[in-house]
Amino acid sequence: MMKKHWLYTDEGRRTVWRVGLAVLAITVIVEWFVSLHPHFTIEKVFAFHAIFGFLSCVAMVLFARLLGFLIKRRDDYYDQ
Fold first, then answer.
1. How much is the average pLDDT of 58-63?
2. DSSP 3-state helix, strand, coil percentages of the chain (rounded to 5)?
3. Is residue 21 domain-shared with residue 43, that is, in the same domain?
């Protein structure tokens, strides 16, 4: 029997989540030390870019699910 890849183990999933959350936290914390040059007033809100990126990702996932629902075919579509 083959050994599971580390990403498929519970500890691997926890590690990926921890690293991902750490990267997100670092990107928000760095905003305190970087001089931003906002073009619009809303860009002055702290962590705007992180929030905007997250909401954009959610919108892309929802759009992909909707698109998949609209263009899906039956399992036996190509058998005809």
1. 98
2. 70, 0, 30
3. no
Contact 44, 51 (CB under 8 A): no
Question: How many of the other CB atoms lie within 10 Å of CB of 64?
Answer: 10
Are 43 and 64 found together in one domain?
Answer: yes
42 and 26 inside one domain: no
- Please provide the distance, in angstroms rounded to a whole number, between the alpha carbons at the two ends of the chain: 38
For residue 65, being part of any structural domain is answered with: yes
d(Cα 76, Cα 80) in Å, to the nearest integer? 7
Q: What distance in Å separates the CA atoms of residue 9 and residue 31, rounded to the nearest whole number?
A: 34
pLDDT class of 74 with cuts at 50, 70, 90: confident
- pTM of the predicted protein model: 0.68
Domain of residue 49, residue span: 38-73
Count up the domains in the chain and report the number: 2
